[in-house]
Write a structure and sequence with these properties.
- The complex is a heterodimer of chains A (about 150) and B (about 140).
- With about 150 residues, chain A is of the alpha/beta class.
- Helices cover about 20% and strands about 35% of the residues of chain A.
- Chain A has helices at about 15-25, 65-75, 90-100, and strands spanning about 5-10, 30-35, 40-45, 55, 85-90, 105-115, 115-120, 130-135.
- In chain A, β6 (about 105-115) and β7 (about 115-120) form a beta hairpin.
- Chain B is mainly α and about 140 residues long.
- Chain B has helices spanning about 1-20, 30-35, 40-50, 55-75, 80-85, 90-100, 105-110, 120-125, 135.
- The longest helix of chain B has 20 residues, at about 1-20.
- The chains are: A alpha/beta (about 150), B mainly alpha (about 140).
- The interface between A and B is medium-sized, with 28 and 22 residues.
């Protein structure tokens, strides 16, 4: 049985700009930064949550031919990548204000819903992200399974 | 070339995000074009080339999507919802709603509550189609 999400990825166009955003503005931490020769394996994660890394991956050769990579970049830059990642916070209103003050683009204002309070943001490349303060009744507010990495 | 396209796309997306946030206000194409840092004429042309529809049509569908949400998730009157989402005339709202969704606001409301989903999901996936798919999904 699968018991957790270990790693997922987000396409970014420039890993330094991605670090400036995901670490510098969102406050994530770098969990791996390895030169694999063919690519830079760069992952980030939420501080205090070692269970889930996000690979900040640049689309391009040799993994993807340059024409396909260009198509991916064009689609992401016009917001067609869909929902890239969702983060939780203990204080959505405070996080909203903090991110706004750092110049993060807010796509969807702070909203109270059945599952909690959340808002939408976009990364510098066009990826849609979401930040939620889960209500205690939300199914995702239940404790995660113990990390077994 | 690709980088130029990306940058233009990104600016257009920033403008579209601004429209999504201010959907209830009268459409000010000049102001939205300034968000994208392009002229008004260039904005309308480029928006259509990028997203497949004019800014006006995009905004209409955004407003109707919000109306669809409010009809099923609130007890507000149809007139109030019409005004809430940016229409100034109930007649125009009802006609536009029927044209896009394929049924009247009253009939749509009768479907009952919808499952709670993040607003950006609702915005994208409950967005009524410009091309008739919404009507066919509704069994019209």
């Amino acid at each position: 049985m699968l018991n957790s999400i270990n790693i997922s990825h987000i396409f970014v166009f420039d890993q330094q700009k991605a670090l400036d955003f995901y670490v510098g503005k969102l406050g994530l931490e770098v969990s791996n930064d390895l030169d694999l020769g063919v690519m830079r394996w760069l992952t980030v994660r939420a501080p205090g949550d070692p269970t889930h890394d996000i690979l900040l991956e640049v689309p391009g050769a040799p993994a993807i031919d340059e024409k396909s990579a260009a198509q991916i970049r064009e689609l992401i830059s016009k917001g067609a990548s869909g929902f890239a990642a969702g983060f939780t916070t203990n204080d959505a209103a405070k996080t909203y204000e903090t991110l706004r003050s750092k110049g993060v683009e807010v796509t969807d204002e702070l909203t109270q819903r059945d599952y909690g309070t959340d808002f939408g943001i976009r990364d510098p490349f066009g990826n849609q992200l979401r930040v939620v303060q889960l209500a205690s009744t939300a199914h995702q507010a239940q404790p995660k399974a113990a990390a077994t990495r | 070339m690709t980088e130029a396209v990306e940058q233009l796309n990104r600016r257009m997306l920033r403008a579209r995000d601004a429209m999504d946030r201010t959907y209830a206000l009268p459409l000010d194409v000049a102001a939205i074009a300034r968000v994208a840092n392009v002229s008004e004429a260039h904005f309308i042309r480029t928006f259509r080339a990028t997203f497949g529809e004019t800014p006006h049509r995009y905004l209409q569908r955004r407003r109707v999507e919000r109306a669809m949400f409010l009809l099923r998730e609130s007890d507000r009157s149809i007139t109030d919802i019409c005004l809430d989402v940016g229409f100034s005339s109930l007649g125009t709202f009802s006609r536009t709603f029927r044209d896009i969704v394929g049924m009247s606001p009253t009939d749509y409301r009768a479907r009952g509550h919808i499952i709670a989903a993040p607003t950006c999901f609702t915005m994208r996936w409950m967005r009524p189609s410009s091309f008739g798919e919404a009507a066919s999904k509704n069994g019209q």
